[in-house]
Amino acid sequence: MEVTPVGIPIIILGVILFFWKKEYLFYAFVFSIPFIATAVINIPKITFGLQPSYFFLILLLLKALITGEVRYYPTLASVTFLIYILFATLSLTMPFVIDGSISATNPEGIVSPIEPSRLQLTQYFYVIFFALTFLMISNFMSNPSFLKKSVKIYLLSAFFVSLWGVYQLISGYFGLPYLLLFNNSLSNAQGWFQYKALRISSVAPEPSMFANFLLSVIPIAFFFGYWHLCFFLIVILLLTRATTAYLGFAILVLCIIFNLRRLYQFEKKRNIILALALVGIAVVIVQLLYKYISKYGFVDYFATSIYEKVILRQHLSGQNRFRLFVEGMELFIKYPLLGVGIGSFRSGDWISTTLAKVGITGFISFSLFIFLLLKEGLRNYHLTELKRSSIAFSVSLIAVFLTMCVSVSDLMYMHFWFITGTLNALGIMRSSKALPRRG
Predict the structure, then answer these.
(1) Full domain range(s) for residue 338
(2) Is residue 3 part of a domain?
(3) Which of 34, 59, 41 is CA-nearest to residue 2?
(4) pLDDT per residue as tens digits for the range 56-66
(5) Which residues does 101 contact at the CB level (< 8 Å), separation at least 6?
(6) Which of 27, 80, 377, 423 has a CA 20 to 30 Å removed from the CA of 333?
(7) DSSP code of residue 309
(8) 319 in a structural domain
């Protein structure tokens, strides 16, 4: 076990906050959410790196266990998630049934026979851990004061990691040394330096992961009125040159246009015009950057990426994703009810991964979980105090989840659980009937 250089101050901070205030410990967790490629502790023997967000969350769960302060508030979404966990548990029997008769690409990217192994237990424990994460976030964010402060910290964190992404881009462009301070985890392949063209991955292992995180932040910045930050994040999102970014940006624009009528009810007209202008300006700025970069040797910086990835599927990552998608669907057809078992397969998208791992039962239950969270967000539109948060986090979940369906397979990213936990918390606040209704 190795404590990383950045892990030393994080551990010290965590211990201090653990014995001081749980509120600040939660804020530290929120700020650390995007640092996916960062490790507090690396364990070479099992190729594992403990992310800062996981570290702070473990401390929060430990403190809650000691004090007994965390409570479970049943909502339709949380009950549905428990049903998903039940099917995930049942799927653990499938490796025993299959017993090595077929092979599949496991979460480590290795094609191996499907049989009982540590990977299934590891992935199952992740599911339990994320259930506790969802519960913890729901508890904290159901406090209006925590909600407001956490949103500001989340946006501040996004601003910081985006600036770090700019530093990464400049380093690559001018051939300067890049400080691997936040790219030190053994759990994730640090592939940023392998790209032939300049791309931004910042504190994530690769651009699509970072783009997925930014998609969770941009709607929040937009609907909470942080226009300058929203503009900056859109530019950074497009500079990742990830398929996830292009698809997610299109989804965001559609969702924002759809919600303008609701936004108009509590925003001035000039702010809405400004918000729309920011989207257009961001695209123009990126186009100018494209021309500048092309002038100095990086021809077709954006156009080639989109053409190859989306249209021709000639990009290596696109070919690999498509192959894994087909493999996942074939496994689902063979074992449609419970799949081949959680932890037995992973592709490049959530749909084929989930269908292959936990079958139609797990797929439907988790999809219903997402649907109920969005439905809860819609129900909160008529509540004055929850309107802005409901719109922001609902659009955020739509953008993140839809892009995960086609380009990100894992539910292991904390920004996903931060969004879902917050939407569930908004439902808890509505159920408490402590908020004034409009009219």
Answers:
(1) 74-432
(2) no
(3) 41
(4) 999 999 988 88
(5) 113, 114
(6) 80
(7) I
(8) yes
